[in-house]
Amino acid sequence: MYKFNDKKREITFDKYNTPTPWMNYLSNGTFHTMISQAGGGVAFYKSPQIWRINHYRFFHLPTDRSGFYTYIKDGNDYWCPTNEPCKTKPEKWSATHGMGYTRFEAERNGVAVTATYFVGEFENALLWNLKIKSNFDKKLVIFPYVELGMMEFMRELQWQCYNKHQLSCYNMGDVLVYKYGVEDQPKPDETPLVYFSADVPPTAFDCDRDEFIGSYRSEENPKNVENGKCTNSTMYGGDPCFALELDIDLKAGEEREINIFLGTAMTEGDIQKSVEHCKEAGFVKKSFDALLAHWDNYLSRFQCEIPDKDAQTMINIWNPYQAERNFQFSRNISYYATGTFRGIGVRDTAQDILAMVPFDIRRAKDKLNLLFTQQYQDGHCNHYCFPTEGWEPVTRIHSDNHLWLVMTAYHIIMEEGKLDYLDEAVSFYDGGSATVWEHIKRSIDFCMKNLGENGFPLMLSSDWNDMLYKVCRKGRGESIWTAMQFGTVLRMIAELAKLKGEEEQVYLDIYENQKRLVNEKAWDGDWYIRCITDEGKYIGSKKEPQAKIWLNTQSWSVISGMGENGMRAMDSVKKYLDTPLGIKKIDPAMTTDYPTKDENLTSYNKGCGENGSVFCHANTWAIIAECILKRPENAYKYYHQLLPMIAQQKAGEWRYKAEPYVYASNIFGPESDKFGLANVSWLTGTAAWMYIAVTQYMLGIKPKWDGLEIDPCLPGEMLPAKVTRIFRGRKYNITITKNKRTFIAADDENENIVI
Length: 755
Ligand code: NOJ
Description:
By secondary structure, this protein is of the alpha+beta class. About 30% of the residues lie in helices and about 25% in strands. The protein binds 1-deoxynojirimycin (NOJ).
């Protein structure tokens, strides 16, 4: 079904009809494409909300349409190297996802095609490289095809009947051009034209989707492919597409290379230049080599060799790759997320940045600075922002957003061993500007000004857990988890204050007070309570009939160092929450009338999503907690059971459904009828935190102010471990044979460490 090739950093599939589309993201930071193992997907320029290029029909059947298709017309026969969407299938076929590229290798009737898709760094275009070889003399007609739509997907759903008449699609020389000319579009001056071209002259083209496809047909059997010729349709109002007809003659044994370019540029003149550039001899190869070199360089910053080869595949390749994609796309667009509204979530992106810090510190700082611009003078933050779309932010106040910013800034300082970043100036959302250090302090001020009757931070519009948005409707509900997050951050800011020569005690005093409260008021005998509602009800308590125990207040009692009974709390996690497919977020799952019908905490079915699923993101904190408690067997159990290929094997491919190479947000829990179904893969905080959990806590290689700490917490299955880690300009070769703490001081020149 699938096979990893770690040397090439690839995964190859021999079956196109995976249980769900298994995606890859191709991107140069400006032009992006999500593409599946069957060639379905969506391309967009900067933002899928306002500059979406092609149609992708979310939730429709057949699934995973439309995409980036090439029809090979061979006599009366026609097929696609992507396998989909034609009924006629290749005789031999495979698809491969690699770092920023996807390749299809297919054969039919003596014609072999290799189609490689990627976005290179030199042009904003999806490059589509076809190598076609025939065993016989052949006259083939090749039809590359993309179904276009309106660039603003939400407007398309609402206003397509009128606005589609403001779209144009036409031929300019041998280049097809699409113009989105819709009234009142958000940023008309920054809206690009889209182009489609090939490096062989087309015989004909189509710009009108219905002309190309025909009526009551689909991508499966386009009329013009069946007829073997395009009709030179233009489209000034209607449903656009790009289709080219390329007629090629092949001699037996001959191989031809054809490149297709789906790109964006601001003007027709810019399009001409861009296409000419793409067509230059060697351009596609140069772009592909640069892509490989980029990922080689990026991933070389942390590589390991360990006995658990599945874990090794994730640590070296797919986990940091997934984390980078999260850093770019936040929770915006995936097979599950439609890319219609969610821009940059402050909470989510602050966590994503954690896994960028070891790889590209400037990129990390720039993104964090963007998040700081969403902070108000009083220290709280907007919840979502839309810098690309220019939309108003979501201004809801949550109890946790501003605290994540402190944590991420701390990670940056520890990676660099310099305080300079704290002096960078960043504006506040409501005016004025201050240093990063000042921003951080305001986060603490905001928490202190928003404590509840019991002394814990007010829950406000929820903490990390979206489901808790009803706890504080009357402005009184408190979050015990946020108290623990606050505690974690207070220790960080105290350390930074000391380094800056400022008073640290003030933060430590607040920490001690919160710690006392957590132990006095939130310890329930076997675990820590989760939160207190407006009415003073304790959620996550033995006394309650439902949702008695919640994972996060157990793991963070340890992470924050606040829980005097942290070990016992984590024992309860094992006893009540652990399953063979990961740790449930709560137990037992709630009914939809708990605590009351009118003020229920959840509408989720039992075992789904926020209500008792295995929430992978939160599992990472249990791994970290077990490492802090020095219990390597537990940490490894929790880590290993969520490795996507392991979870998929255990649940079964057709139950798990999602990709075996990237983490999912959650897996349906045992109280659901679909225990083991993975949900919302790719874009999830699991990626960044799993990476932190395994590299900084299990392998234990953690940047500290004055050097690199190596404090592993590994079971036999992961020993010996060899790691190379680039840190402050040095490449350290670390061999770990046992769990023993070692410290490499920053001025120590020894780069070969054996423990
Ligand atoms: C997914 C959301 O994107 C994230 O912000 C939240 O923390 C988790 N769900 C948990 O509720």
